[in-house]
Fold this protein.
Amino acid sequence: MHCVRSVAPDILLVGASDRRLALFENIYPIPRGVSYNSYLVLDEKTVLLDTADSAVSARFLENLAYGLNGRPLDYVIVNHMEPDHAASLMDVLRLYPEAQVVASAKAIAMIGQFFDGDVSARCTAVKEGDTLPTGRHTFTFVMAPMVHWPEVMVTYDTADKILFSADAFGTFGALNGNIFADEVAFEAEWLPDARRYYVNIVGKYGMQVQNLLKKAAGLEINLLCPLHGPIWRKNIAWFVEKYQRWSSYTPEDKTVAIFCGSVYGNTENAADILAACLADRGVERVALYDVSHTDLSHLVAEAFRCSHLVFAAATYNNGIFTPMETLLLDLKAHNLQNRTAALIENGTWAPQAGKLMGELVGGMKGVELLTGTVTLKSAVKERAGLEALADALAASLK
Ligand code: FEO
């Protein structure tokens, strides 16, 4: 049975949510599920904006058939060819033989790469500023390469001032009846997943996101329709400001996140003492994570949130304790910038982690490393080094 929601008088949400998938992109845990938003515009011509993941294709196709109510499908606008949105494209083209695909040239090439069967004769390539009039609506295409793949574009409806923003402004989390951001407790319940989604999916491409934000700033937007998560019709500027911060590698919160990689708990003890020393100095909302027990996607998102980062790790195989090394490599891969960092190392006979962590952290653009790595030999024997580090961090926060 269909489960279609109305987005606007002549626009339907025909996508579906998946609450069974454990790992988005087979890497990011999504305990709250994920939605694949697909939009159907019922104008003089009918227009589908993106399709859905294969896991929900049966429900999506049922929704689409219900939404069309016997009308032919005239156009499929493909904003993004990643399979979470495009896996059902061939099913749509088979079921609706009149449908023409409208997409960037790169997206059309990817259709040939992903699917068997040549549909190039049914595809029209569009570029920046091209338009598609469909009756009351006119869709304008805005290229958004690397947000999140090179073929990505976003689509702006000049009639109702709607931006179909592809992956941008999306979030993990299934839609549970309420499809608008103002109908849910977004800041309390969704923002951490929105941040984790942004950072892990497009965090590396801050400059490209900034380019899209500059283009979007010139548009009046009444409705912001992403491919994942709630649709925005109120308070859009609040969410755009989050994107400004994330894409410019500007911290959201002035506080300290301590990441610790501890084999037997002694490095964790140092992290705990440092956290307490920071609290003694009036630092609020200190975060502390055991990197062996918190999923990497959360750790990376927290590093994007906080202004000051402490990496505390044991030496392991004459290197950095593996989960910490993985975290630092992932932060570098996601282009983390503009933070203040400090190091704590542990090593029973030959501490090496500090030097090696320093090399990785020092290679991140705009990351200032506070001098004075705290070195433990097996366990904390005196608090002076940690007290001094807390002083330095508290002073830097001021
Ligand atoms: Fe939601 Fe880049 O796909």
Q: What stands out?
A: The pocket of MU-OXO-diiron is lined by residues 80, 82, 84-85, 148, 167, 227-228 (CB under 6 Å). The chain has a mean pLDDT of 97. The CA atoms of residues 119 and 177 lie 35 Å apart. DSSP finds twelve helices and 23 strands in the chain.
